[in-house]
Structure formats: C-alpha cells, structure tokens
Amino acid sequence: MLDRFKKYYPLFFLVLVILASSALMMSAEKINRLVLESRQAPETLALLQQLFTEATFYTYRVDTEIYTLYDSRRHKLGYAMYGEGFGYRGKITVLAGLKDKETIHNIIVINQIEDISYWNMLKNNNFFAQFIGLKIEECYPSFAWLPGGVDAVSGSTISSRGVTNAVRDAILDKLEYLD
Fold first, then answer.
1. Which residue intervals of the chain are DSSP H helices?
2. Any bridge partners for residue 36, and if so which?
3. Fewer beta carbons within 10 angstroms: which end of the chain, N or C?
4. Distance CA 63, CA 56 (A)
C-alpha cells in the first residue's frame, strides 16, 4: 500500500508547491498594494484627482516624469504629466491628463502669471473645456485657415496659445514612454 502512495508523491508535492506559491503571491500582492498606497503624497493625489476623480492611487516614474493613475480596483485610468508654455506675461504650467495614447482626458493649470482680465476671458469663454476628449493630434492652436485645433479666445490669443502649447509640450515629449 505504501508503494501505491510513493507513486503519487511527486504529483502531491507539485500540487502542494503550486498552492503554497499561489498563497504567497496573493499575500505579496496585498503587501505591495499597501506599500504603494502608503507612499502616496496626499497633496499629489488630490491634485491628480482633479484630472481623474475616481483615482485612488498612482505610480510615478522619475525617469520619464509620468504619473500613471489607478482606481480602487487597480484598473489603469490614464496618465498625467506636466508641461510648460509661454503666455502674455510669462510661463504657464499645466498638468495634462491622458485617457490613453490618443485622447486628452482633462487639464489643470498649475501656475500662470497672466493679467487677470486675459485669464478671466479664458475662464468665462470655456476655453479649458475644449481639451476634454480632444485627440492629441488636434492639440494645436487653431488658425482661421486651418481646420481643427484649439480655438483661441479673442482678446486673449497669446494666453490661449500658451496653454495650448503647454498641453502639447507635456504630451508630445512623453508620448513615446507610455505603455
């Protein structure tokens, strides 16, 4: 009878090893998730949640300066990256969120020193809403003779172009690094 069990010993051992490995992998995944979530800077997460409201955590690659955002079930929501352009008074810094490699999800202006009257023209004319769902290849300042693009706000053309260039700069410089 003992000989009969010896015959199945390798199979029993293999099943045991597979079960133990699976249990260890599940434990490691939970530990990795806890470590990942514990390293989240609350200020950064709050800022990124302005782009993707359902984001609960993110990863950041220092070499590419790209944030990858995830929901609570670890589904990838998209990417975020900083870009800069120049407006009427100086540098405009934006945080651009991408849904995928082709579509802008949303943008946030992080810093600008434009005249308040020019900036209010942008806000009051829903200039920033143009970027939501915009295809990346259409992210360029529009001209009367060129179809597509982002329409500038009359009276605030230079500020409009500064924001558009900042968004385009953020995306095009990083697009090759997206997975």
1. 2-38, 42-51, 116-124, 157-174
2. none
3. N
4. 23
Residues 106 and 168 in one domain: yes
Let me know whether 136 and 66 are in one domain. Answer: yes
**Domain of 122?**
42-177
Which token pair is 102?
């082709």
Same structural domain for residues 13 and 74? no
Q: How high is the mean pLDDT in each 10-residue block of the chain (179 residues)?
A: 66 76 65 53 92 94 93 95 94 96 96 94 95 93 74 90 94 89
Q: What would the two tokens of residue 142 be?
A: 């529009």
**Do 95 and 166 contact (CB within 8 A), yes or no?**
no
Residue 146 CB neighbours (<10 A): 9
Residues 30 and 49 in one domain: no
Quickly count: other Cβ atoms within 10 Å of residue 95's Cβ: 22
